[in-house]
């Protein structure tokens, strides 16, 4: 015992006025496995802290919510010096597949879900998913092509309007 | 670490108020901790709290929300309804355990 007990009780302040009403907007513009996870992890963390969270999927980020690709995002060491592998290796056939499998295993080992299940968890936590209108039009995709829980395909200005006052992350 | 009085007994807590000695916890203290943060516990709350206590006892760390859903069988949506805004932290607090360390 290093201190004596005194009233009032020490209680965590979970619902401080400064934390209520906080909003976060995350723009996901990349469709590789290693660039999908940062947005998903941060969205999940923000929701767990009671932050209203909106994700906007645009350009290559559309792969994260496209039913055809969402379960099959890839990772390549090519052009990524942070893998500390000789860059020439990245171009050899099969290396992307190998690197993807290895990264997926490392992620699964941490009990972190695959992309579709992660989106499901984000939605169950109250997160909002939006598809980018221009990306959909460019790729001739409609809401039917997207993960069911995507609320709508909206324009960039609609997204900016919906996230008024939010903190913003561009990934 | 400071000592605070909850449920008419002294308990060891960290500077935020989370219990530092899980063994000092029992269900009556859990009810009192919940009241401190404005929660009244029902059967659904207890199912989650008991899972947390059991999982901590076997694994030595507070389960993340995802683990409460996957291994404890309690849907994420329900956890947000039962422990609004910050379910993982509120659940850990009421269960007398440290905050979960996992990111997901």
From TrEMBL, chain A:
Per its UniProt record, what SUPFAM superfamilies does this chain match? DsrEFH-like (SSF75169)
State the Pfam families in the record.
DrsE_2
Q: Which domain of life is it from?
A: Bacteria
* PANTHER family xref list: CONSERVED WITHIN P. AEROPHILUM, PEROXIREDOXIN FAMILY PROTEIN
Protein name as it appears in the record: Peroxiredoxin family protein
Q: What is the lineage of its organism?
A: Bacteria, Bacillati, Actinomycetota, Actinomycetes, Micrococcales
Automatic annotation (TrEMBL), chain B:
Q: One GO cellular component term, please give it.
A: cytoplasm
Localization of this protein: Cytoplasm
- A Pfam family (short name) is DsrC
UniProt-annotated catalytic positions: 103
Presence of keyword Transferase: yes
Please give a single GO biological process term from the UniProt record.
tRNA wobble position uridine thiolation
Indicate the family of this protein: Belongs to the DsrC/TusE family.
Report the PANTHER family cross-referenced here.
SULFURTRANSFERASE TUSE
The protein here is known as: Sulfurtransferase TusE
Species of provenance: Knoellia locipacati
Query: What taxonomic lineage is listed for the species of origin?
Result: Bacteria, Bacillati, Actinomycetota, Actinomycetes, Micrococcales
């Amino acid at each position: 015992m290093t201190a004596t007990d005194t009233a009032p009780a020490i209680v965590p302040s979970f619902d401080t006025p400064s934390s209520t009403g906080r909003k976060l907007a995350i723009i996901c513009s990349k469709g590789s496995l290693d660039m999908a996870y940062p947005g998903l992890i941060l969205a999940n963390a923000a929701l767990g802290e009671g932050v209203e969270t909106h994700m906007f999927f645009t350009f290559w980020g559309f792969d994260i919510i496209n039913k055809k690709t969402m379960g099959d995002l890839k990772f390549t060491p090519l052009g990524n010096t942070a893998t500390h592998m000789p860059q020439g290796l990245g171009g050899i056939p099969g290396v992307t597949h190998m690197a993807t499998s290895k990264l997926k295993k490392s992620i699964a080992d941490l009990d972190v879900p695959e992309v579709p299940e992660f989106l499901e968890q984000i939605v169950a936590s109250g997160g909002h998913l939006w598809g980018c209108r221009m990306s959909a039009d460019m790729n001739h995709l409609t809401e039917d092509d997207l993960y069911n829980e995507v609320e709508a395909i909206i324009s960039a200005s609609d997204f900016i309007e919906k996230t008024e006052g939010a903190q913003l992350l561009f990934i | 670490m400071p000592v605070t009085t909850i449920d008419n007994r002294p308990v060891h807590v960290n500077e935020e108020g989370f219990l530092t000695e899980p063994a000092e916890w029992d269900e009556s203290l859990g009810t009192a901790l919940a009241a401190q943060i404005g929660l009244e516990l029902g059967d659904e709350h207890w199912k989650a709290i008991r899972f947390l206590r059991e999982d901590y006892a076997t694994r030595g760390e507070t389960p993340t929300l995802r683990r409460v859903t996957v291994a404890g069988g309690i849907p994420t949506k329900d956890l947000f309804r039962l422990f609004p805004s910050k379910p993982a932290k509120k659940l850990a607090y009421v269960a007398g355990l440290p905050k979960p360390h996992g990111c997901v």
